[in-house]
Amino acid sequence: ESNLDQVIGFAFPLDNCNVGSIALGGIDNRFISGSLHDISRLNESDPFHSIKINAAYVGDIPIDVPSIDSILDSRSDRISFGKTSVDFFRLINATKSPEGWKIPKP
After folding, report:
1. How many separate domains does the chain show?
2. What pLDDT, in 10s, does the model give residues 64-98?
3. InterPro entries recorded for this chain (predicted)?
4. pLDDT in tens, 3-50
5. Pairwise CA distance, residues 31 & 28, whole Å
6. Burial (0-12, 13-18, 19+ Cβ within 10 Å), 70
7. CA–CA distance from 23 to each of 46, 63, 76, 79 (Å)?
8. What residues make up the domain containing 27?
9. What is the pLDDT of residues 48-63, one digit of tens each?
10. HSE of 7 in the Cβ direction (CA atoms, 13 Å)?
11. What is the rounded CA–CA span in Å between residue 25 and residue 95?
């Protein structure tokens, strides 16, 4: 199905964060320096890194989403929106399937 080739990711400015891009479901290894320890953690003993997502785009098109506190799990290379995951995907008109979220082409 053509919708399955869609990817959602996050791009970070390299001068502020050495992780250049994170795709949902995995860290984009083409743009990562491997220094995940430089991303802030919730607390010193917590294995999860915390980030705040303030803007989202589909291609060049901005999507109106609220600021989302997110967790980046470097052990499984995943990003979590916590309680707002379903809301986020619904905002971008994604549909849930047994294989995961399907994103419509912009």
Report:
1. 1
2. 666 666 655 544 445 555 555 676 677 767 777 77
3. Peptidase_aspartic_dom_sf
4. 333 445 555 544 444 444 444 444 445 555 555 445 555 556 665 656
5. 6
6. buried
7. 22, 17, 13, 8
8. 2-102
9. 656 666 666 666 767 6
10. 11
11. 16
